Amino acid sequence: MSNIKCAVVTGASRGIGAAITKELALCGFSVIINYNSSKHNAEKILEDIQKNGGTGYTYKCDVSDRTEVDGMIEFAVKQFGKIDVLVNNAGIAQQKLFTDITADDWNKMLSVNLGGVFNCCQSVLPYMIRRKSGKIINISSVWGSVGASCEVHYSAVKAGIIGLSKALAKEVAPSHITVNCIAPGCIMTDMLTNELDEETISQLADETPLGRIGTPKDIAKAAAFLAGSGADFITGQVLGVDGGFC
Ligand code: NAP
Asked: Selecting from 3.40.50.720, 1.10.8.60, 3.30.410.40, 3.10.180.10, what CATH number does the domain 6-241 have?
């Protein structure tokens, strides 16, 4: 088994996931850069990591598909002999009036954003439990705590991630595995700019006590902390990284 620490980051081809992956690589982790459709981006991130002396692999997998998730986790274990850290970051967003949300919209939101966390946690845990070691970091959202108008399904699954994390933290604590959430505020990524116009983004910056939209790096720094030994005694927590928004 390799002495190098290994991290699997889902949705690592863009935005927050890409920043977390790069930050973990800088901290000495070998990384699995999971992507679903953005293959080229994922390869570019791996190149950047390698240029800085880091190591890793890209891996295509839809987190809502359990068979594909199991394949990714088996691949990581085959490469590294273990998985030290799992970051469940992959996610989708959608702006719709509650009355317009279709059954398909609802099911997709659930299967990617919450089902993906369930799939990845359940797939990785047997390996972590065997070693009595591991850290799971789940990316929720401020909207999971306070709720967002026109994002009822998104807010519901993000609240679900918090409940899942708190319960799972208690269940796996005897195996010395920690489970924590990060709840980002408004972060400048494709997700924000695809869903909201410039005026709304500027209003959100004004409503943020620290007076700005966050960066993917803001979230990456928090994830690196929770992935490190400095967070060994922290579990079942929700770390808000939101400029004071919530
Ligand atoms: P983003 O820029 O839209 O990136 C989303 C990432 O998720 C991409 O890498 C995408 O991969 C991946 N993804 C989507 N569906 C997937 C699937 N079925 N299987 C595997 N990967 C999938 O979003 P972001 O802003 O970085 O968001 C990252 C996380 O932070 C999400 O969970 C989001 O809900 C949360 N968050 C974001 C904000 C914000 O303001 N940006 C605030 C709070 C929470 P491909 O491109 O390869 O398909």
From this structure: 3.40.50.720
